[in-house]
Structures are given as C-alpha cells and as structure tokens.
Design a protein that fits this description.
about 25% strand, disordered C terminus, 31 strands, disordered N terminus, five-stranded antiparallel β-sheet, globular, five-stranded mixed beta barrel
Length: about 675
C-alpha cells in the first residue's frame, strides 16, 4: 500500500458499479462534484451499485485526465433492499440472477419458493449481502411473469421504483364515499362562474381533466385570462388515508396506454375531473393582462364552474388552422375565444423569450397500442398551437400564484431551477469550443443565443443536447429560489393537483389564505408540511420519470422486434468507446456496436463525444442509415447494424456497458428537465 494511503481523510460517496468488476465513487456534497474516484476490481469491499460508502484514496494524485484510485473502507447505507432478476435452478437450489450487469453475483433464494418457476422474472428481499465465503441471500417478494416479456419487465420496473397499481383498502373505502356530484352546500361563498364560457383542452384520451381556461375582455378592452383548477383539496382532507397515499405516491405515472394514478379513479376521473356540462369546484386564478402580457391585476378565488366543452388538441389545432367547416360549425360558439387565446399565447411566449426563457424543443414519441395493449405504431409527437395555448396559460397561472404566496410570506411548495453550476458551465464550454461556439457566461440570454445560432445547422442536435445536459435538475423546495429555465423569479406548480402532490399542497396554502385560517393550527400544520412534501415530491418525481423512461424502452423494443431487418433513417444520440447510440424516426433508440462500424478499431474522444477512424467520424447528430438487427422487450435493448455490414459478434453485454444514463454518454433531446413532470398522455406541462 502506498505511503500516501492513510494520509488522506476518508471520503463519503455513492458507489457506481461499471459492470466489469470495477466501479467509481462520486463523493457527496458540492465539494466532490466532478471528482469521481476509480475503484479497481476486488477493492469494492462488498459494496453494491448505489450503496453509500466510505473510501480512502490510494497513492498520490492521478495524472491529468485520470481518476484517482481509491479503496472502499465500509458500506454506510445499502441501496438494494430488493433486487429483481431471472429465476434459475442449480443443484436443487433456486437462484435469482439480477437484471443488467451492475449487480454481478446471483442471489440464493431462501425460504418459501412456491410460485417460483425457472424462467420467471421476480424480486427478492435481501437478507444477507454475502461474504467472501457465502453468497448473497434473499426471500421471495414478488413474481412478475415470464422473464423476457414486456409485461413482466413493466411490472418489475414499477416494483423497483416503488410504484403500486393497487390502493390500500382504507383509501379505496374513502374514495368510494366521494360524491358523484357537487353538493349544493359546497357552493356557498364561492365565486360562481358557471355562466362563463369555460373549456378544457386536453389529449384525446385524457380522463383526468384538472384545468380549464376562459378568456374575455374587461371594460378597458384588456384580456382577462381565467385558469380554473380542480379543487382537489376539498375532497382530500390533509392527513386522511387519501392524502397519505397521495403523499407517498407523489405523482401519477403515465406510459403508453396506461396510467398509475396518484388518486383513485373515483376522484381523478370523477368528481375532481372538470368534465363537460357538470358543476365542479375549482380554484381560479383570474389575470387581467397588459398589452405586453404582464399581469396588471389578478384575483385568486375559490370558485365553481361548469365547462361548456371538453376540447381535444387535434380538434383545436384543426380549428385554428382552418379548413374544417364541420368543426367550425360545431364549435362556432367557441371559435372566436379560441382564436383570441392563440393570439394571447403568442404574446405570453414572446414575453418569456424577451426576459430570457429558454426555448428548448421537445421530441417525444407517442406509442399507439392495440386492444390487447401491444404496441402497434410509434409516431413523433409534435406539439401544435393548442398545446402552446395551454402551456402558456398554465405557466402564467403558476407564476402568478407563486408570486402571490411569496409576497404574502405564506407556506408553499415552489418549483425551483437553479443556474448551471461552475462545473457544468466548464463542461459546456469545453464541449462546444471546438465547434466554434463561445459560451462566456451560461446565463439565459447566452444559452438562448447559442441555441438560435445552432438552429438549422448540422450541429443543432449536438448543441441542443449539450445545453440540455448543462442544466441543473428542477426540484421542489419550501423556499422560492426562482426558475432559471423559464427566467421566472417566482414559480410553483398549481395547475395539476389531480396528478401532482405539490400542486395539492399549493391549493391548501391558498385555501388557508382565502379562508383566513393561516394564522391558526392550519397554518402551523402547513408550515410543517411543505418542507416534507417538497422533499418527498422531488424523490417521487424522479422515480416516476425513471419508470416512464425505462418502460417506454420496453414498449419501443417490442415494437421494433416486429421490424427486425428493416432499414431506418437515424441520428447519433450518444457516443461511447464501445459504439454509438442512435435514434431512429419515431423515437426508438438503440445501440450500434463499434464492431458493426466499417474498418475498426475506432478512437473514442470523450471530451468531444466522437468516435473516429481516419476520415470516418461519428458524433452527436451524425445522420446515417441503420438496420434493426435485434430487439429485446424484456431488457429494452435494441441493436442496430449498418446496411450491408455484417458485424463481428460483440463481446457479451457490450450494448449495456454504458447505457445512456451514464454521465459520459450524450442523450437525445427530450423534455426540458426543468419543466417536469414530463409525461401526461399526449400533453406536457411545466
């Protein structure tokens, strides 16, 4: 051991297994940012992927560009209480082979094994993490179905992320007692807007309609924008079984043709949903706007509405584009207001751009399923004008409510998004400098200028992806710290209380202010609850996003399995030393091994995300034609090859060695991470 080994203090961090016997540790805290340590084989000391560990650096400082080696001294916190994988039999013993290659050792299943079959996908609860002489051991926790199937993979992913389809009996009992219609007594003291022209605009198949909009003019001719949000807090008392379950879930989870709701359908699709032509209880943010889109006056009130129409995005887009006499006749009473909404939306969007809001485009895939739930088609989802209307109006309401709560110094859950860190800014400069882009200061206007400069150029994909990776992740906090991506000094989530717990908490804070109960016990409870709700909601949002992303991979792989041998237009979306990740038309992403490229070997330039051999050069955004070689619905892996090239067999696990989640892999553009949650059945809201 080096004489330097014990002169260094112990460092705490998270162990990331590389899948090949070695790993890395990311130190905790800001001081450790960008300073990963390399853990060689047999120096992990029993640590598993994701564990919190203490390490001691080995030897002196590493050479420039190299990570310093370290040894794991102890495991402080285990990350893998349960593990999913495939059931195998060996010498009359039952074993679980973990999914992926981050956990390398099979787990001996002890105790009850009834219901287990070799070839099942299952989960075990770890009872022992193993020693040098004994294997890890665990007890059966759940069986998901046959390993390799998309259905079993989906259920395993939900299990891993702590997402439960079923509600506990006390929650279902409370939901069953929810009224089917608004009680007339509940209308007392509310602003009655039932005679106003108010509509919902949602995806074609959405059933949890939690927001409605209206637009009229005041006596001075100024636009008066109404954003009316389902008053879920009226039906979900704080501390009730419904509330505790919603807090634990944090958010609804959407994928393909399914949803795992935050609230039971009796509420989410029933009494809380702003269904057409029935009375509903709401909280309304009514904003009178100046010509530049700024809020001149506003009112926040408990209200009652009766929506005139349940509009869909496709119908609204068709109405705004013209050329559909049938729709124009059917919705003649709405069309003038809809056209005014489109004009106001453009004003609001222009205002956001002028103050520095980032215009990061989204690319999303819509997976269409048959009656059996099997994916039969994939199409890129391009937002239209009506999606922009709802996006703009919801942002305006969220900002107005956040400003209101902040100025009154009331308890609240804010949606915050911070400026890129110094480390992320340095990485952005290093990546883009060779392409001729200069990023002196990563402020809003500099980043938007960068995006505008790259638009329409061959580097657009690369620049867009790099900027996206440079941004911090948005989260929930009880303090207002502003929103960098939107260039908004005040921001919260107010508009989706059916599917997001932070919005429900914001509604409770607003209701306490409106009812005059903030100074009593209600205010004390809210002050105590907002911090916990913010932390829990941030964690559950991350779990939901991980589940949605991983499940989408399985659906895409199942669809691509039916198109093996077909040729697709593609763009490089990630670069590793082992090959390329490519994104094909429609949104499926897969791996093109280096062995499938002509004339290997290739040189990997991590700093500039390129793989090259002589004049042959691949980087983010490189366009190419690929053939689907294979697709596995169980793992979500899709493998491509080049037309006319028969690759040498890659080494086992190559396609999974460096998945896009790893830091050195470029990602395809997606929803701006500061705007999440990202998915809502054909609809996005920040």
């Amino acid at each position: 051991m080096s004489k330097h080994a014990h002169s260094d203090p112990l460092i705490t961090g998270v162990y990331h297994a590389a899948g090949r016997g070695f790993g890395f540790v990311t130190p905790s805290g800001e001081e450790g940012a960008g300073r990963d340590y390399f853990i060689p084989p047999r120096m992990e000391n029993g640590a598993w992927n994701g564990d919190t560990v203490t390490i001691r650096p080995e030897g002196g400082p590493s050479a420039p560009g190299e990570k310093r080696e370290a040894r794991v001294i102890s495991v402080l916190k285990r990350a893998n209480r349960t593990v999913t994988g495939a059931v195998r039999k060996h010498n009359r013993e039952t074993w679980l082979v973990p999914d992926g290659d981050k956990l390398r050792d099979p787990i001996l299943v002890v105790g009850r094994t009834a219901g287990f079959r070799p070839g099942d996908k299952a989960a075990v609860k770890i009872s022992s993490y193993g020693t040098a002489k004994q294997p890890p051991m665990g007890a059966l926790a759940e069986v998901f179905g046959r390993d390799g199937s998309r259905e079993a993979a989906v259920e395993a992913i939900l299990f891993e992320q702590g997402i439960h389809r079923q509600f506990p009996p006390p929650v279902l009992e409370q939901a069953a007692r929810a009224p089917q219609a608004v009680d007339p007594s509940a209308l007392a003291g509310r602003l009655d807007l039932r005679d106003k022209l108010i509509i919902t605009i949602d995806g074609e198949h959405a059933r949890d309609l939690d927001d409605a909009v209206s637009l009229e003019r005041d006596g001075q001719g100024r636009p008066v924008l109404g954003v009316h949000i389902a008053d879920v807090s009226h039906y979900v008392p704080m501390g009730s079984p419904l509330d505790v379950e919603a807090w634990q879930r944090g958010t609804s989870v959407y994928f393909a043709d399914q949803v795992v709701p935050m609230l039971p359908t009796e509420l989410s699709n029933g009494i809380c949903s702003l269904n057409p032509r029935v009375d509903r209880l709401t909280l309304s943010c009514i904003m009178t706007l100046a010509p530049d889109g700024s809020v001149a006056e506003y009112r926040i009130a408990k209200s009652a509405i009766r929506t005139a129409e349940r509009m869909s995005y496709p119908d609204c887009n068709a109405l705004l584009q013209g050329g559909s006499p049938e729709l124009e006749e059917r919705y003649a009473h709405i069309l003038p207001m809809l056209r005014e909404m489109a004009g106001l939306s453009r004003v609001l969007e222009r205002r956001r751009r002028l103050r520095g809001g980032l215009d990061l485009e989204s690319r999303e895939s819509e997976i269409l399923c048959d009656d059996e739930g099997r994916p039969v088609s994939i199409r890129a989802r391009a937002p239209g004008e009506s999606e922009g209307i709802i996006e703009s109006f919801m942002l305006a309401a969220n900002e107005c409510v956040a400003r209101h709560l902040s100025q009154l110094q009331a308890p609240a859950v804010y949606r915050i998004h911070e400026k890129p860190s110094a480390e992320k800014a340095d990485a952005l400069r290093a990546m883009l400098a060779p392409l001729g882009y200069d990023v002196r200061e990563p402020d809003n206007f500099s980043l938007q200028k960068l995006l505008d400069q790259a638009r329409g150029t061959p580097q657009e994909f690369l620049v867009h992806t790099t900027v996206l990776r440079s941004l911090m992740k948005a989260r929930y906090e009880p303090q207002n710290l502003g929103h960098f991506g939107l260039a908004a000094p005040y921001y919260c989530h107010f508009t989706s209380p059916i599917r997001r717990y932070p919005d429900l908490m914001v509604h409770r804070c607003l209701t306490a202010l409106l009812d005059g109960t903030m100074e009593g016990k209600t205010g004390q409870k809210l002050s105590s609850a907002v911090g916990k709700a913010a932390r829990q909601s941030s964690e559950r949002e991350l779990s939901a996003q991980t589940a949605e992303r991983e499940i989408e991979k399985r659906y895409l792989a199942e669809y691509m399995a039916s198109r093996t041998g077909e040729t697709f237009a593609a763009a490089v979306s990630g670069v590793t030393r082992f090959g390329l990740f490519v994104l094909v038309e429609g949104g499926a992403e897969g791996f093109l091994p280096a062995e499938a490229l002509p004339a290997p070997p290739y040189t990997f330039d991590e700093a500039h995300m390129t793989l090259s051999h002589g004049e042959e050069r691949y980087t983010l955004g490189t366009l190419l034609q690929v053939v689907c070689a294979s697709a596995d619905p169980g793992s979500g892996q899709i493998v491509f090859r080049l037309p006319g090239h028969a690759p040498r067999s890659p080494s086992p696990g190559t396609a999974d060695r460096e998945r896009p989640s790893e830091r050195r892999v470029g990602r395809r553009p997606g929803r701006h991470p500061s705007h999440g949650p990202k998915h809502r059945k054909g609809r996005n809201k920040r």
